[in-house]
């Protein structure tokens, strides 16, 4: 039997909840087969991954892989497996502590997201950074502290609901075909946006105007603000579907004074402390619910 695997993690509680919610998506309902005596009984997907007594089969990993795009399919598989392992560790601890009985979802949270949030709030306390720590960070990172960058963006939204797995694959495939064509004929972006996009911006040729962080959905934001100018080589996936994106211009922000960014610095340092605390907490959970099989999946990415 393999030893429990240490899993590095750099996600905050919101990201953990988001990953858990995504990973909890189920396959399409096939219950109608039960009424057909001639329908073959589907073979159980193979299992190479286990958390405590809970097995995670290859079908679950395959569904999760759509949220972990990578050039190497082994990397996408390992990333998906890691996300499912983290989710399962948290859910088993939620069950052990009986937290689900006291959950009150906030806003649009699912019960699972709310339970994970409550677990982390209770079990992973995070001290607030003092002013000395904040000022030291400011002096060490002046060149990185500026008003928000702005991106002028065009996009083509190829819509597919979050639970439509086939629709998502189709949207991605269409997006990749459009990107391939736009590399050869960039002047056709407006035409393609008006023809294919499900966003109201299609009437403007896909023009979203100037965007700063926080104006779009978090998963779109995270990917957009890592880009350079030009047509993006791969689609960006969001809760709405897949996006073909072109960054027309980037306007970098102006330097900020300490007073202007003290609150953001404190939030950032608190996040770093929380990430370290989460990492340590996961190691405790791994000792309680041993993880079997993840090391072998990760080894395939080497």
TrEMBL record:
Positions of region (Disordered): 20-45
Q: Where is the composition biased (Basic and acidic residues)?
A: 25-36
Molecular function GO terms recorded: peptidyl-prolyl cis-trans isomerase activity
- Is the keyword ATP-binding in the record? no
* Ranges for domain PpiC: 148-249
- A Pfam family per the record: Rotamase
EC class (word):
isomerase
Assigned keywords, A-Z: Isomerase, Rotamase
Name the EC number(s).
Answer: 5.2.1.8
Q: Which residues cross the membrane?
A: none
SUPFAM superfamilies (UniProt xref):
FKBP-like, Triger factor/SurA peptide-binding domain-like
User: Its catalytic activity?
Assistant: [protein]-peptidylproline (omega=180) = [protein]-peptidylproline (omega=0)
Similarity-based family:
Belongs to the PpiC/parvulin rotamase family.
Q: Which named protein is this?
A: peptidylprolyl isomerase
Q: Which organism is it from?
A: Arenimonas maotaiensis
